[in-house]
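Chain A, query sequence.
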Amino acid sequence: MKVDLKLAISGTEFEQHESIQELLDIAETNGVKFVELWYPKNLARLGLQRSLGLIRRSGVQVACVSSGSELLRGAEETRTQQRLLRQSINLASRVGASLVNTYFGFTTTRNRKTALEAYCHRIKPFLSLAERLDVTLVLENEFNAFGWDPKHTDITRVPQSVHTLLSGLGNSRMKTTFDPCNYYFAGIEPFPYAYHILRTLISYVHVKDGAKFLPYPKDESIGQQFKDNGSRFCIRSMGTGALNWAAIINALHHDNYHGFLTIEPHSLPEHRATAFGRSIKFLRSIVKTAKIPVDGL
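Chain A, predicted structure.
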């Protein structure tokens, strides 16, 4: 049977004081063969060599290396971000990952044209490195998750701007990570609107669910909370939020997407194992109904 999609779990859920083994254990418990490795925090506890040794011995493969790198920052900080992205690309090549997840950043100005031009200028050397090492960079859409961008200068909040950026670059080594929940939190309809603008440019997908905040009972279905654009949001268990994941996955299948569905439940730490398990169970029910073959489901 041909496998159309592949399941992965993200290391973004794990903090620097936690060993990479904890991520690998979640993967093994749930029969997941791929992980998204967050650099450097997933490797901080045990160090690079020991962590990579554990990954090799586990049999789990690295789907993507993500670093939180943002090339559009102030001059001094941009140099740090450039070093982080370069290290991430080199690490992806070393561990056999085909993707490196990165972010746009933010500025002090609302001039979108200037921001696009600056980012294109800064990303080009990394596209050459990605080509040389056979890696694809995937730019994730973001909302004001950390309160750093009150002026909403991150152009990835808007799918048309992501399309403009990637089409302008015209480089097969630069695509987008489609995060429907992030679009929802940014005030954009994720599906069908954002999806259909970007569907030919999607090379990676982040999976989580969320909704506008209400004083829900405090239970394992409620995760982290965020504020953006005057609204308050919260993460919810897959299938209990505002995202139409059944329609999204069916559309990906219809459009011949053959990449990863990477779960990042953004749960509270004490509910993390349960959140991963529930997310996998929910995805399994969707693909079983649609008869879509997925590696790991």
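The mean pLDDT is 94. Residues 112-133 form the longest helix (22 residues).
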